[in-house]
Amino acid sequence: MPALLPNEKENPLSSAPEVITDVARESLLAEITAALGDRLAASHLRPADDLWLRVHTDAWKSSIRTLRDTLGFHYFCFLSAIDWMPSPFGRGEDDPTEPTPVRDTTIRSGYAGGATRMQVFVRIVNPVTHIGVTIKVDVDDAKPVLESLHDVYAGANWHERETHEMFGINFDGHPDLRNMYLPMDFEGHPLRKDFPLLARMIKPWPGIVDVEPLPGGGVDESADEA
Amino acid sequence: MMQVLALEVPYWGQSLLRVLGGIVAVLLPAGTIVYVFLFKMMSFMQSRLGPMEAGPYGSLQLVAEVGKWLQKEDIVPERADPRIFKMAPIVVLASTFLLVAVVPFGPDAWFTNFEAGVFYALAVSSLSVLGILMAGWASANKYSLLGGLRAAGQLIAYELPMVLAVIGVIIQAETMNLQQIVVAQNAGEIFGFSGLGNPYLITQLVGFVIFMIAVQAELTQAPFDMPIAESELVSGYMTEYSGFRFLMFFIGEFATAGVFALITSVLFLGGWGVPFAWFGWTDVDSVSNWMNIVGPIIMFTKMMLIVFIIMWVRFSSPRFREDQLQRFAWKVLIPVSLGNIAITSIFKVVM
Amino acid sequence: MSLTDRLLGDRQRLAYIASQAADSRLNVELETEGMTLNIGPQHPATHGTLRIIARLDGEQVVWAEPSCGYMHRGYEKLAEVRTYPQVTSLVNRIDWLGSFANEVPFILAAEKLMGVEAPARSQHIRTILFELSRIANVSLFLGDLGVQMGAITPVFFAFRDREYVLNLIEGATGGRFHPNFDRIGGLKDDLPKGWIAETKAVMKKLRKFCDQIDDLLFGNEIFQARMRGIGVIPRDVALQYGLSGANLRASGVDWDLRRDQSLPMAWNKADWKVWTHPDGDSYARCWVRLQETRESTKIVDQLLDTIPSGPIMAKVPKIIKVPEGEAWVSTENPLGEMGYYVVSRGELGPFRVKIRSASFNNMSVAPWALRGVYVPDIVTILASLYFILGDIDR
Hints:
The structure holds three protein chains of three kinds. Chain B is mainly alpha-helical.
C-alpha cells in the first residue's frame, strides 16, 4: 500500500506535540542550499508538512531552472502571487453610512519572509520523490516586473497571464500577456487587497449571522456552522 | 394498378394518381421510420421510454412535431444568399421523390418502368449532394460550409462503391430494369432448387454489404455522419435552418433512408415478389393481380427490416473522422467491390 | 541525449515525432487561404462556455487556443471576505460534478493550520464520499465521451447510473450536487440507516456500468481509430504543463496523490491499484479513467466494511479562528490535482486562498496538443483531457 516516506507517520497531525524530524526535507533543503548558493534568500521548513524557499528577485528564473535541472523538480504545479498588505476595506462589512474605519495595513510577510508588499510564489514538485517546494520571490512595488518562467515550464504561461491580470505583475519575456478572464479594458487588478469587492460595497453586508451565539450553546459543543 | 381496378383513367388522371402515390410512398415510410425507430427503438436501446404523451403510446408525437415546425419562423440569416438558401431543402427532398419513381411495388404497381432504372436511380440519388452543398454554401456560416464540403466529399466518395456494388447485380440479372431484376430473382433457382427463388443477397453478399455501408454513408447516418457532426459542427449544413425548411431536411433524411431501403430490397432481397415457383408463375405477365396489393406490403416489411439495420448501426456507433472515412471508401470498399465485379463476371461467363 | 529523449518511452517517442511532423504536414504546396473557426462559447462540444479559436487550413488546425473566462466567478477574492466554514459552499461550485471532493482539501488545509484532526470515523466517511463523487463525476465523463464522437447511447446509461450515486450522496448529505457537508474537525452528520447496504448494491451496478462502457465504447473499432495516437502528450510535456490526475498517469507517470501523500484520509486502509498507461494519447486518458472508476468502487466497498465507530466531530470551538500560518493541501480529485494554498492571519476568514484547480492546468496544454490535428480531433482531445468549465475559470 501507499509507500510512506520513511520519516513520515501515517498521520502527521495526530502526533503534533511530538518533535517530528523530517529527514527527507531536511536533506533536500541542504541540497537546495548547496545548489542555489547565495541566490537563496531564506527558507522555512515545517517538518512533515512543507518546505518554503525565497529567492532573490534577480535570480528568480535562473534558480528555478537550477532546481528543475539539478534536483529534478520537473512538475509544475501552479504559480500565483500574494498581496501581503491587509485590505483597507477589511472584510467589506462596514456600514456605508459611517465613516470608513482606519485599519492597520502594515505589511507582514509569511513564511520565508520577504521585504515587499507583493510576492510571487510558485510550487514545483519532484515527480520521483513526490516532495514539492513553494518558492517565493519579492516583487518590487514600484516596478512589478519579473522574468517569465514560460520557457522553464511551458505551463507557467497561463498562470502568469492570470497573475498579470489579477495582480498587475508584469512578466518579462512572456509571449502574450492578454487577460484571461476579464475584458481587456478592465481597470484595476482584482486580487490586490486595495481593490474593493464591489458586491460588498454596493449593498451593505447584513452581518455575520453564523457566529451569533445560539441560546444555551457553549463554545465546547460540536461545531455546527450551518 | 389500373387494370386491377378495371377502370379507364385518362392520362392526366394517371399522372395525378402517380404523384399522389409517390407522395404516399415517400411520406408514409418516413413517418413510420421516425416513429418506430427514431422515437421508440432508440429510446428502448437507451433505457428510456421515448415520447408517451401525444396519442396512444406517443404515436401522434410526429404530428405534434410537424405542427411545431410549421409554426416556427422561417429565418434566413442576414448575410446568406436567400434564394439558394431557400431552394436547398427543396432540391434535397426532390431527389428523394425522383428516386421513388423507379421503384416497382408490384407486377403492375410502378410509377415508371425505365429500362435503365438502376442507372437512373443512382444518378438521381446524387442530386441531394447538390442541395447539401447549396445549403452549406448559402448559409454564410463556417460550420455549414465545413459540413457542406464534408458532405460533398463523402457522398462522392461513397457513390462509387455503391455503383460498383450494384454492377454485380446487373451482371447477374442481365438487366438494368428494376422490375426485371425483381423477376429475375424470384424466377431464379439455386442449384435447381426454386423454392426460395434466387435472392441476390446470397450470391452477391459482398455487394450487399458494400451497398449497405455506402447507403449508410449516403444517408449521412452514424458512423458516417461527419457532415452533421453535432458535437463539432453544431449541425453541419442544417445549422442555420429552422421551421419548415428544417422539416424538409428532416423528412428528406428519413424518407431517403426508406427509399434506399426499398431499392436495396429490390436489388438484393427480391423486391415485391414471392418465389414464383410457389404459384407456378414464370414471368411478370403471369403473376396474379393480387400481388399488386400484397407486393407493396412485402416491400414495406423488407424496407422496415433494412431500415432497422441502418438505424441499429446509427444508434450504436461513434463516427469516423473525415480522412478515415475517405480512406475506408477508397482503400477498402472500392477494391473489394471491383473484386466482386470480377468474380461475378467470371462466374457469369463460366457457368 | 536530450531530456526529451530520456523521459520518453519508445511508443511515446514515435507518437511525439508524429505530432511534430503534423506541423510540417500543414499545407505548404497549395496556396490556400486560412479560416478562423470560432468554436463556442455556445457550442455543443464545450460543456459550458469554453470558447476555442481555431485557425484552420481546410480541415486541419494551424493553431487553436482556448479562451476562457466566460464563467469566472472570482472565488479567490470572494473567499477573502468569508469565514472558513462559508468558503466550503463556494468551492463546492468549482467542479460541480464532484462537489464533495472540492471541499475536502480546503477543510484539510484549515485543519492543518488549526492542528485539528478529524476522528477516524469521519475520515473514513469523508473518503467514501470523496470516492462517490469521483464515481459520479467520471461516470458522466465516460458517457459523454460517446456523445463527443456521435454515439449517443452511452450517455443515457451514464445518466441512469450516475443517478444511483447521486441518490447515495443525497441520502448521506442532503444535497445531490452541492453537499456542503464537510466541516472543520469532521462531518456535519453521521451516515443514515441502511446507507451502507444500499451503497454496496450501487457499487455493483456501477461496476456493471463500467463493463458496459468497456464493451460499448472502448471495444469499438471506430472509437479506437478516433482515439489511438490522437492528441499524444508525452511525459515531459505533461509534467511541464502540470497535468494531473488521469491525464498525467496516461502519459506514463506513476503518481497518485491518494497513494503518494500522507493525508488524514482513509485511502491507505483499502487495497487498490494506481493505473498508468504508456501511450499518452486520448485513448490512454479515457482508459485510465475507466480503470479508476472501477478502483474507486473497490475502495468504497472495502472502506464500507471497515468504518470504525466513534464520534464524527473533533472538539473544535464554536467560532472558528485559524491560527496564523500558511498551508498547502492538495488531493487527487476526479479531474486531477486540486489544491488550496491557504494563508491565515489568525482571523475568522482566510487572508488569501489560491485555488489550484486541475482543469486550468489540464487545459493549458490544449494549444500545444491541438496543433496540426483535424477539426474532429479537437473535440476528442478536449473530451479526453476532460475539463469542467467551473474548474478552469473558478
